[in-house]
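Justification of resources, computational component.

The compute hours requested in this renewal are based largely on the per-chain cost of generating structure records like the one below. Each record pairs the submitted sequence with a full structure-token output. That output is archived, and it is also reused by downstream analysis tasks.
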Amino acid sequence: MKSGFVAIIGRPNVGKSTILNALINQKVSIVTNKAQTTRDNIKGIYEDDEAQIVFVDTPGIHKPHHELGRIMNQSALASTSGVEAVILVVDVAKPFGDGDAFLVGELKVDCPLIIVLNKIDLAKIDQVQSLKARYQELYPKAQIIEMSAIRLFNVDDLLKIIKSHLEEGPRYYPLGSVSDRDETFFIKELIREQVLMQLREEVPHQIAVAVEKFQLKSKAVVVEALIIVDKPSQKAIVIGKDGARIKAIGIKARGALEERFHKTAYLQLYVAIKKDWLNNPRLLKEYGYK
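The structure output for this chain reads:
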């Protein structure tokens, strides 16, 4: 059996998590249309008769504005070390800009590089060709593949390219594994996904979720969680008029929990203000961002 680790990197909101979920045919990373949805390195495990591939989904690389952003960048870039291949995901529907130049300047790869030109369903042919030529010039040894992860276009071809870079090796995770993360992590992420979906653009980047209680019973899952904000004004936005927004978040998150656990979900959400938590090393560690 072939085996190995493959890092998936790119700018925020280019479709890295959608690609991971498509490759392993299961939802491991949350997906929204908000930048910086992924904050942690998340391993997703693919296995068939030929290979076990451990994919590492990473936070979007960006110019950081706070300590959390710096930690996210550091985590993403560190994932490219000691792997069998790196997948660089590019949103082909957008022109090459300052953020792309920043990533190129930060990225140092000493293994095979696969460049995925994602979202080709949203781009014109000349856009695709122009960006393809740009990346061929930047990375002449890289393999480039055009893809639409959301439409599952070229997923199998990407897998074939990845397998070509693997060698015979051990099974790193037990048969049937889909991720290295525990259930508490996924509960936190499912709730945060709904927060991101429900809130306006300026608030989600300054929100964290902490699971205070998790009980898995025979017929139910019981969860109490904190939605952490930076300012009193953000708390008001999360709660909404007469509690309407946090109720909507709770309903959607409860549905996601029931879909994951196949049990009735009892979810209690609270909102807490932790001023400047994004720059507080103790709080960042407490909320799982090391």
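Residues 58 and 76 are 5 Å apart (CA to CA). The mean pLDDT is 88.
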